Amino acid sequence: MLENVAIDPDTRQLNLDDDRYTENTRAAYPISFIDNAVPSGQGGHPKNVVMLTADAFGVLPPISRLTPEGAMYHFLSGYTAKVAGTEKGVTEPKATFSTCFGAPFLPLAPNRYARMLGEQIARHHARVWLVNTGWTGGPYGVGKRMKIAHTRTMIRAALSGTLDSVACEKDKVFNLDIPTSCPDVPAEVLRPRNTWANGAEYDAQATKLARMFVENFKNFEEGVDPKVVAAGPTA
Predict the structure, then answer these.
(1) What integer pLDDT is reported at residue 4 of this predicted model?
(2) Average pLDDT, the chain
(3) What confidence tens digit (pLDDT) does each residue in 41-58 have?
(4) I want to staple 71 with a disulfide (CB 3.0 to 4.6 A). Which of 44, 119, 128, 167 is the partner?
(5) pTM
């Protein structure tokens, strides 16, 4: 399958570097071209599940470990931010809640997917992490995007099991378990409040976002276990 691919008029060869039609060129090739491919297309059960968010308020920690109930809560919430370049008309980040991180594509009731996730986590003892690649040190316009190098380092530490033995602190607003340390990542980066110049301003933004979580989750409260509701932020 080829899509939006240019053909060199002289050689009649495909030119995947040609951006005349689009910069988003697509091409497909036989799976046999990949040396370590799995013909069935199905892998094993993951030991770690990573949920990504981009917090434009700059208040969520860069990485936190979720309980099974917390994983179900954040899966149902699907919080992130629309950023410029991802959707037409978006010029600056805007907070959004997309159920199960894919609301337009859910044919069944969201709570059913959340229960399935919880069952799989329990059955296979998977660790679940919430990783924030958004802003730190302040909201959009004040703070800075999380350093990619820090995000990569934290994810590697989570996948390798390095963070399993690290103590966690409970965030009282978001009810998240935040590792107190991570190799090669400054300790202050792990605690978002410490990256803000004004702690009171952080508290105000954190409370604002927590209330948004609570209000959004009212859509699911009747169909989930009370423990899932209790695993979310408080406001």
Answers:
(1) 59
(2) 89
(3) 888 899 999 999 999 999
(4) 128
(5) 0.82
Q: What angle do CA 220, 78, 88 make, to 5 degrees?
A: 125
Among positive and negative, which fits the CA dihedral 112, 118, 124, 129?
positive
Q: Is the dihedral of CA 38, 41, 44, 49 positive or negative?
A: positive
The type of residue at 20 is: R
**Are 80 and 54 contacting, i.e. CB atoms less than 8 angstroms apart?**
yes
Find out whether 127 and 65 touch, Cβ atoms under 8 Å: yes
Scan for tokens 């799976």, then name that residue.
Answer: 31
For residue 215 the two structure tokens come to 């209000």
- Burial of 179 per CB tally in 10 Å (0-12, 13-18, 19+): buried
Residue 205, CA distances (Å) to 51, 60, 134, 192, 196 in order: 22, 10, 14, 11, 11
Question: Mean pLDDT throughout 170-177?
Answer: 96
Cα distance between residue 21 and residue 233, in whole Å: 46
